[in-house]
Every structure is written in structure tokens, then in C-alpha cells.
Design brief:
The chain is mainly α. The chain is built from 6 helices and 3 strands, in the order ααααβαββα.
Length: 157
């Protein structure tokens, strides 16, 4: 068995510093810090989809990268990361009364189960294994049918 120094901890995101564009990030930070209007906007919190310039830039990149119809900047949101984004999606598109099951690809993002449970979905998470061919579609279909049958029987009672 190797030493602990050879172990890579995949439970957290820690990019190698030599991979980061430190000079570009430093210049961007200094630019923002020197402009009180921009700084104030960056420090705002609460409702909002993120900085308009950033959202516009992302929308234009999506248009160029994927040759899709020009996206509407208003449909792009900037969040603090995957965890916050998942939480926002749950707030908008799920309901404890209607959402019976949450199907997650396994293995999955290590923080996602806790996020779903924080939103009240404890006991509703179901793993769908993935291999080099992708998601096990047959198992997913079986689980979806079982959920559908359970819904029908509950509604008829």
C-alpha cells in the first residue's frame, strides 16, 4: 500500500495552483477592487441571475461553441457553483408533494445527496449505475414504470 501522500482526495475540488491563470485572476481582482461601482455590484447578494456582462459573454460563447440559435441573456444564470445551482433547480422544478423519486447517476457528485436531503427528499434518492456505455437505461425504465404504477394505485384508492 502506498503512502498517504500518494492519495488523491476526490471529495473536494482543489485545483493544482500551477494550472490556474494566477496573473489573469490577479489582474481581474485588482480591476474590480479599483472600481467602486463594479465592486459594489459584485458584492451584492440576494435575488439576481448574476452580472449582465458575464451572462451576455456566456450566452455568446454558447452560441459560438454549439452553433445554437442565439441564446437570450436572460436565460443564463451565474451561481456560486454546482451545489447552489442544484439547490436553485430543486426550488424551481420540484415539489415534495409531486416528486416521488430522484434518480441519480452512480457514482454521483459527492455533495448532491445532502442537497436533495436538505430539500426534503430523504428516502427518495435512487441510484442508476453508469458504465463506459452510459446510464443503465433498462433499470431506469423499470424504476420509472414502478413509480408510475405506484402513482396510479395511490390515485385510484
Amino acid at each position: 500500500m502506498g503512502s498517504l501522500s500518494n492519495i488523491i482526495d476526490l471529495r473536494k475540488g482543489s485545483p493544482a495552483l500551477e494550472l490556474l491563470p494566477v496573473e489573469i485572476l490577479t489582474n481581474a481582482f485588482n480591476t474590480i477592487m479599483s472600481d467602486k461601482v463594479t465592486l459594489t455590484r459584485c458584492l451584492d447578494y440576494g435575488p439576481g441571475a448574476g452580472d449582465k456582462y458575464v451572462r451576455k459573454t456566456i450566452a455568446e460563447w454558447l452560441y459560438r461553441k454549439y452553433s445554437i440559435p442565439r441564446p437570450n441573456n436572460e436565460r443564463v444564470a451565474v451561481t456560486a457553483g454546482a451545489s447552489q445551482n442544484i439547490s436553485c433547480i430543486l426550488q424551481c422544478y420540484t415539489s415534495l408533494e409531486c416528486t416521488q423519486s430522484i434518480y441519480l447517476v452512480a457514482p454521483t457528485y459527492h455533495l448532491v445527496c445532502g442537497i436533495f436531503e436538505d430539500h426534503g427528499f430523504t428516502g427518495r434518492l435512487q441510484a442508476i449505475p453508469e458504465d463506459d456505455q452510459g446510464v443503465d437505461i433498462a433499470l431506469l425504465e423499470t424504476k420509472l414504470r414502478a413509480d408510475f404504477e405506484r402513482t396510479i394505485s395511490v390515485c385510484l384508492c
